[in-house]
UniProtKB/TrEMBL annotation:
Annotated protein name in UniProt: Periplasmic chaperone PpiD
Coiled-coil stretches noted in the UniProt entry, renumbered to this chain: 374-410, 489-519
Organism: Sediminicurvatus halobius
Residue ranges of domain PpiC in the record: 266-368
Topology of this chain in the membrane: Single-pass type II membrane protein
Length: 638
């Protein structure tokens, strides 16, 4: 049977690469092994074997989880038709059952050792990379699954995997097939084309009132305007508030000194240390003993011994001890917090008391403090002013926001009281649709949601305080509203007339293209036809092109390689272009050169074709099993 199926699929490969959807027969996830409760509804039977609603629900949830994992943040349930997804999942379960039956009838068996090996490879049952019997039994118990149930299901999964491998492995691509494919991919055709522009015919066509009316009636939905509102609103914008805030000289100087002090605190410094190691988990006695040792080393240094020599003799940090304890030029953030806090509290040349970290006790000395690189005050004046003004504006914004919210609530029928009290203006938008797409406040999702609410449209009251992007706040109200409707012909006449003119010009261009195509198909020389072409027709003389000739319009290239060319005869056909038509002529074909096909490229092609051919054989097996099976689906239970 497999050979017959394979024979049905041979020859399907030409030059088109077909993307195959490989059916995931092994449905991963612990819940696929759960025992089904008694009385579960049957949604399908396959050769007498039942598929229950419980099983379908479990598989459907797994499909959704797989999609969610694959798409990540881009996942949106609305992207998928849930009912269609359930049907596809049911089909997978049916196909799985068919293949299990086929594998059983074919005598395909999975050895106990293969099941054991597969079980040990499953990471969910591993601890520190090794299979754990305890974890295995614990997880199964938590899910009310017995080892016998799980291993039986795993055995079935392995049988399906072996069946697929056996079918896919039958695909063998010959050198002749590879060379035919490459010759087809590299094939060249001598093609020329005439481009007929529809725009060139627009002045030649006439448009009367009857045509406009007829087109309008036939395409009314094209002139349907969506529901829309015009809004009045008041806006609190921190940038506008900041622009009105004055900042005095003393405040700017004070902020500059803070900036300098901050820069100096963060300036790099050269540090050396001595470590007396003690584990973080050591008892109090060991910690105290280590501190005494560190204190003794500190006294040696204070007594006149060289820090570098003491570090080399006694430090438990071998890397820095060889350098006299020197850690080099460092910055804040390079060390654990207690060490860093002590190091940045010292003056240059100062030696610390013993400092405790998770590594032990440290003696720290700062040997150099680099000066902070801070621009002069005048260079930073504008930046400092903007910084202070922004901070004050944000504080003021919070106060004004609360006040605006209260005033808008107390005066629901108007924004004027709030605007006058807060010294801001009432602004108005143009028409806004639910889809947005406008600028400024009209592009804010929060505004669109509030604007098209029943309360806002029906009662025409102020909205709540809306938080917008950029730390802005607004209150809106609907000033005008219009329902979705087809626009009257008088309002869209110019658009309809232009559409009729464009359509008639396109028809005229096609007629001209068809006439040119017929002449070429009848055997007239391309040069003769092109030479007699009228205004609006441009010619591209015949040249050799390939499937990947990027300088040729895609529609022309595709049509050129679809044309059937017999012997020395030429063939011609139309191709649609943006703004017109192309008359494509092909008068010669030459096969692609395969002489330079290397071993590596040949091997890659063989692997790809084997895989595609094998997948096609497997799909054919599934299709054949479906044709022969007795399958019943309860649509009312899906």
């Amino acid at each position: 049977m497999l050979q017959a199926i394979r024979d049905r699929t041979r020859g399907w490969i030409a030059y088109v690469i077909v993307a195959l959807l490989v059916i995931p027969f092994a449905l991963f996830g612990m819940y696929n092994y759960l025992a089904e409760g008694g009385g579960a509804q049957t949604v399908a039977t396959v050769n007498g074997e039942e598929i229950t609603r419980t099983r379908l629900d479990q598989a459907h949830r797994q499909r959704q989880a797989q999609l969610r994992e694959a798409l990540g943040d881009r996942f949106d349930p609305a992207m998928f038709d849930d009912q269609q997804l359930r049907r596809e999942t049911l089909q997978q379960l049916i196909d799985r059952q068919l293949l299990l039956g086929y594998a059983q009838d074919a005598g395909l068996r999975v050895a106990d050792q293969d099941v054991a090996n597969a079980l040990r490879r499953q990471s969910v049952f591993q601890v520190d990379g090794e299979f754990s019997v305890e974890r295995y039994r614990s997880l199964l118990s938590q899910n009310n699954i017995t080892p016998e149930q799980y291993e039986a299901q795993l055995r079935r999964d392995l049988a399906l995997e072996a069946l697929r491998d056996a079918v896919v492995g039958t695909a063998i691509t010959s050198d002749a097939e590879i060379e035919r494919l490459v010759a087809l991919q590299r094939q060249e055709r001598r093609a020329g084309w005439l481009s007929v522009s529809a725009a060139a015919f627009e002045d030649e066509v006439s448009v009367d009132d009857a045509a406009v009316q007829e087109y309008y009636e036939a395409n009314r939905d094209d002139y349907r305007r969506p529901e829309a509102v015009r809004l009045r609103y008041v806006l609190l914008d921190p940038q506008r508030l900041a622009a009105d805030i004055e900042v005095d000289e003393d405040t700017l100087r004070e902020r500059y000194e803070e900036r300098v002090a901050q820069a100096e605190r963060g300036a790099p410094r050269r540090i050396r240390h001595i470590l007396v190691e003690v584990p973080e988990s050591a008892d109090e006695a060991a910690v105290a003993e280590a501190r005494e040792e560190a204190q003794a080393l500190r006294e040696r240094i204070q007594g006149g011994e060289s820090f570098a020599q003491v570090a080399e003799d006694a430090s438990d940090d071998p890397g820095s001890a060889r350098q006299g304890g020197d850690l080099g030029l460092v910055r804040q953030g390079d060390f654990v917090e207690p060490f860093e806090e002590a190091a940045w509290s010292l003056e240059e040349g100062e030696l610390s008391e013993p400092v405790r970290t998770e590594f032990g006790w440290h003696l720290i000395e700062v040997t150099e403090v680099r000066s902070a690189d801070v621009p002069a005050f005048e260079e930073l004046r504008d930046e400092l002013r903007a910084e202070v003004a922004r901070e004050r504006a944000e504080r003021r914004l919070y106060e004004l926001g609360n006040e605006l919210e209260t005033l808008a609530f107390e005066n629901p029928d108007s924004l004027q009281p709030a605007a006058e009290t807060l010294g801001i203006e009432v602004q108005e938008t143009d028409w806004i649709t639910p889809e947005g797409g406008g600028e400024g406040i009209a592009a804010e999702p929060a505004v669109l949601e509030a604007a098209f609410s029943e309360e806002r449209i029906g009662e025409r009251v102020n909205s709540d305080l809306l938080e917008l992007e950029g730390n802005r706040y607004a209150v809106i109200r609907v000033a005008d509203h219009r329902d979705a409707a087809v626009e009257p012909l008088d309002e869209v006449r110019d658009r309809v007339e232009a559409a009729v003119r464009e359509a008639r010009a396109a028809d005229a261009a096609r007629e001209r293209a068809e006439a040119l195509q017929q002449r070429l198909a009848d055997g007239e020389a391309f040069e003769a036809v092109a030479g007699e072409a009228s205004e609006g027709v441009s010619a591209q003389s015949p040249r050799w092109i390939r499937r990947d000739s990027g300088e040729v319009p895609a529609a022309v290239r595709e049509q050129a390689f679809r044309l059937a060319v017999a012997g020395d005869e030429q063939a011609a056909e139309l191709a649609r272009l943006d703004g017109g038509w192309a008359v494509v002529m092909v008068d010669a074909v030459r096969p692609g050169d395969v002489s330079d096909l290397g071993d590596e490229e040949r091997a890659q092609l063989r692997s790809t074709l084997d895989r595609l051919d094998g997948n096609a054989a497997f799909e054919a097996l599934v299709a054949a099993l479906r044709e022969e099976a007795d399958i019943s689906i309860r649509e009312d239970r899906l």
